[in-house]
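Dear Dr. L.,

I hope this message finds you well. Following up on our conversation about the binding site, I have prepared a predicted three-dimensional model of the protein together with adenosine-5'-triphosphate. For your records, I am including the exact sequence and ligand specification that went into the calculation, followed by the structure tokens. Please feel free to forward this to your student if that is useful.
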Amino acid sequence: MAAPGTRQAPSDADDALDTLAVRSDGARDPRSVNQRARDEDPWARYRDDGIGAPLERRPVLVLNDVTKRYPNGREALRDVDLSIPEGDFVFLVGASGAGKSTLMKLLIRDELATQGEVLLDGEDLARLPRRKVPQVRRKIGIVFQDYKLLPTKTVRENVAFALEVTGTPRGRIGPAVERALRLVGLTLQAEQFPRQLSGGEQQRTAIARALVHDPRIVIADEPTGNLDPLISWEIIQLLLRINELGVTVLMATHDADVVTALRRRVVALEEGRVIRDEVGGGYHRRG
Ligand SMILES: Nc1ncnc2c1ncn2[C@@H]1O[C@H](COP(=O)(O)OP(=O)(O)OP(=O)(O)O)[C@@H](O)[C@H]1O
Ligand SMILES: [Mg+2]
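The resulting structure of the complex is given below.
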């Protein structure tokens, strides 16, 4: 079965549109236009077909038969298969202890899978040479429930710090920070310290920090867990806007109202297993 949110790969019937395949030297290329494109560019079928809808969105995150057993023997994830195409907005739900944070830790290589593979942008995280880890991690922006801001740095400095530690040239830091702060609506609070911000503003700072690298995917582990319902909605709206800009979003949450209202893709975990994966699902199982 195709993963929810993806389409079937284009059929060979597409190859019927083939008669224009002429090589640059003028000779007829026996391959079809589509086949030639696929041979030259394996990702071609995932790209826009020029008419409108993408043929098939490329999976940015893939878990193949993943089991995670912690050293104390606790199995936090069992036989998890998951494919998240670029541009998806996915809610990860499940009771406390179901394995949501563990799954996210695997995605940022904070933990390694005991079995199976975790692919980020086609790269197997377990096989990644150590020197490539920072580069791959930068494809992900992370947002936590407790914000994890540095208390002695201002909003601007907190966001800039994420670029400084990765050796981004000074001249690029300023404009990137401005852009991220504008996106989350914190330009006016840029010189304030975390203790001078509301919870919602602190979380928006954390989101700006997650975005400043221009990540492909944002992972948010219960980002609204410490916020009241109104502010939670603002944070969700912000994540939706970021998703509209093309960033894939995976959000773990206990917020049933939000999940049910938004009708996005919902992946539900129970005791480490995926028990439900549906587009347009509610927080709770139907029926
Ligand atoms: N470092 C660890 N060592 C041993 N067991 C762990 C470790 N981290 C998590 N676990 C266990 O793995 C299971 C899944 O934990 P996880 O934190 O992934 O759950 P969760 O779905 O994020 O829960 P919550 O909604 O409470 O945040 C739990 O039983 C937990 O006790
Ligand atoms: Mg958790």
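In brief: Residues 70, 72, 74, 76, 94, 96-102 surround adenosine-5'-triphosphate (ligand 1) (CB under 6 Å).

With kind regards,
A. P.
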